[in-house]
Every structure is written in structure tokens, then in C-alpha cells.
Amino acid sequence: MEIDFLLEEKKILSTQYIKLVYKKDFDKITIKKDHVKYTDLSCKEIFDKDIIIRVSFKNFKNDYVFNLSNILIKAKEIVLIGILNDPLGIYNQGYIDNFKLLTDKKERIKWYELNDKQKYYYLRGCGLLSGVRETIDNRESIITIDLSKVKTDLDVYYEIGKAFFTSYGYFGTEFHSFRDCLYNINELLRKQEFIPTLKIKGAKSFEKNFSDNILYSDFYEEFKKSGFAIVNN
Q: How far apart are CA 20 and CA 30, in angstroms?
């Protein structure tokens, strides 16, 4: 992940990570000095002007406008104060945290060691990186979805995405977005010579933990409506 601060396309700061702090009348960005890769904040022209904050990870790139009013340089961190034009709202920090997580882990995350917030933003981050897909990467005639360890809805959506796609498998974060993702691939599936069979590993565990959850019936009903044959293993 790269985060660059630009003034009229001139780079004035580059860092690996930022922490966003939202206040009532101003916003604050804190940057640890050991995360800074490059800095040139000496120019007075940067104050009260729109600074572009460009966050890049893989094919994801987004620009945020930050009107800088003050800089505090402390012993271990740099604090930028101003107003952030924030198109992703409260989601920004989550995306940044998880792109950093992917970077630090070299994209080899251990899903079941993540907390719920990390899981949510990871899946949303996959949505940013890959979008809602129209094709399935997995070309096998039988696709195995491993639900033996799932405890939360997010676990289920992760395992579906992992089974269907080779990377950044986004298949929603709640049942409405799950249906949207499934609907998006339906048209192409109908054109294929065959629709893969879904083999559900850990079906009994899935039923035990989710039988009272709308996702349980939704999971089977929606896949069957799309033409998938389902085998419980």
C-alpha cells in the first residue's frame, strides 16, 4: 500500500500508513515517523490549499481532498490538521487498515484469526479490488465450499468467495449483497454447457450454527434457484 500527499501533483509526503481522526470542526491525520518514506513539508504554499491524498493498493486507487491548516511535528509522529473531503465516509480507516494488513502479511492472511471488524473491511476491500464479478474463476465441475469452521455470516461469505474465485473473492457482506453477487453471475452461468455442482464441506456444522439464521435457508434457496446442484458432505 502507498499513501501519497500531493500538491498540484507534486509529492510532499509519502507514507505506509495513516490514522484518521474525525473531530466536530476539523479532521486530523496522524503519521508515525517510522512509516514515512518521503517528506517535504517546508513549503508555506501548502497551507489552506487542497492537498490530494492518494491511497493505492494493487488496482485500487482513490483520491481524497484534504484542506491543510496546520502541521504539528512531534518526536515520534507528524500530525496534519485540516478538513477532509471524505467520499468513503467512516469506511476509510477500515480499508486503510486492511490494505496495510494485506501488505504486512504479504497477502497471506489467516481469516479465522481476524476480528469481526477486520473481516468486514477485508471483504469490503475485496469488493473494491475486484468489484462484483460476472464470471467464476474456479473452472472445476465440482466447487467445494468449506463451511466447517464458520461462526458468523462474514465467514460464510468469505468461504463462498474463496471457493468461487482465485483472488479477492467478494461475495457480499450481508444477504442482500450476497444475492446481488449471485444475480450478477447468473446470466453467464446460463450460457455455460454446465453449471458446477456445489459440495458443502461441514454441512452439519453449518446447520448447527446457522439453522436459526436467515442466511441458512437463503444460502440453499438462492443457489438452487440459480441452477446449482448442492451436495452436503
A: 7
What angle separates helix 153-164 from helix 116-130, to the nearest 10 degrees? Answer: 30
Contact in structure between 65 and 50 (CB atoms under 8 Å): yes
Supply 28's cell numbers.
486530523
d(CA 170, CA 18): 25
> pLDDT digits over 109-159, tens only?
999 999 999 999 999 989 988 989 988 989 899 999 999 999 999 999 999
Q: What is the sign, positive or negative, of the torsion defined by CA atoms of 164, 118, 107, 17?
A: positive
The answer to whether 42 and 49 have CB atoms below 8 angstroms apart is: no
pTM as predicted: 0.87
Contacts (Cβ under 8 Å, ≥6 apart) of 222:
178, 179, 182
Give the H/E segment covering residue 5: strand 2-7
β-strand pairing of 142-146 with 197-201: parallel
Count H helices and E strands in the chain, helices first. Answer: 6, 11
